[in-house]
Amino acid sequence: MGNPSVTERKHYRVVPGEAEEPTSTIVLTSSTAHYVDVRIEKETRGGDLETPYRGGLSTNIEWAFAGISHATEGSNQNGIQGPGHSVWEHWIDSKSDDPPSDEGDMWLQANGDVLERGKDVDPDTGKIKEYEELWRDLKIDLVDQEIEHISTVLKAENVKTSAKGMVIRIGGWCQGILKVGNDLTIERWCWTKLESEQVQKLSSTQTSMIQQETISGKWEKLWKLGNGSLPCAATFKVTTLKENTTIQAGDLEWKVIENYRW
Questions:
Q1: What does DSSP say about strands 76-77 and 163-170: parallel, antiparallel, or unpaired?
Q2: Euclidean distance between CA atoms 152 and 231, whole angstroms
Q3: What is the Cα–Cα distance from 176 to 168, expressed in whole angstroms?
Q4: Counts for the chain of helices (H) and strands (E), in that order
């Protein structure tokens, strides 16, 4: 098993252009290398994503995909560390049911960031282009009363309805994708700690009405696309989940394929 990770993209560059970041891109990767990659267009380039989710239908998805990744470490020759190489299998892809290969060379930077370099097809011209993406690992915090970090993966598939879904929670982050035919449902959640003053302001009556495990913070839905049902909230109660068991969400049965703690 590998180390679960929460990774944020800091910039994207089509070589030889300028680096920019027009999206809010977060990738959750589990201990078994399952991943959910969600890229949401920002309201303004260089701005922030407007959160939390306030209802209604979002349309600003740039790309979202999920599957399993494969990584190989770079070789060390004469004391010089070469790049690693990663391949991402797109089991679900918001843009295509037959996506092209997705792979890149991974160059570790002095500050711990990783610079990905690769080639892909420009959707506007159909030509091969070189690109760079800069990635940074985010800290994985403990959530509320949990004494261990959590890596949970739920997966669903129904061949008759062409439905595929994956939900991953790593620590205080959770993302899910469901694709049924051409219909997409995508969510991003984050655990938000309450400031000490907010906790103190709760009256004794309010406190008695709130479960102790939720006093120090809350799960916030940061973004949502579509009308389908995703079992993200089920991953917030990990004590009720056991590997190789199933839960129901809408018309789909979801299997717990990972519930790892470290």
A1: unpaired
A2: 12
A3: 6
A4: 2, 17
Encode burial over 62-98: b for 16+ CB neighbours within 10 A, e otherwise.
bebbbbbbeeeeeeeeeeeeebbebebbbbbbbeeee
- DSSP per-residue string spanning 69-122: EEEEPPPEETTEEPPEEEEEEEEEESS-SSPPP-EEEEEE-TTS-EEEEEEEE-
In the chain, the amino acid numbered 103 is: E
Provide φ and ψ at 203, rounded to 5°.
-75, 165
Three-class DSSP category at 189: strand
How confident is the model over 82-140, as pLDDT tens digits? Answer: 799 999 999 999 999 999 889 999 999 999 999 999 998 876 677 889 999 999 999 99
The residues with which 252 forms a beta bridge, in sequence order, are 249
**What separation, in Å, do the N-terminal and C-terminal C-alpha atoms of the chain show?**
11
pTM attached to this predicted model: 0.88
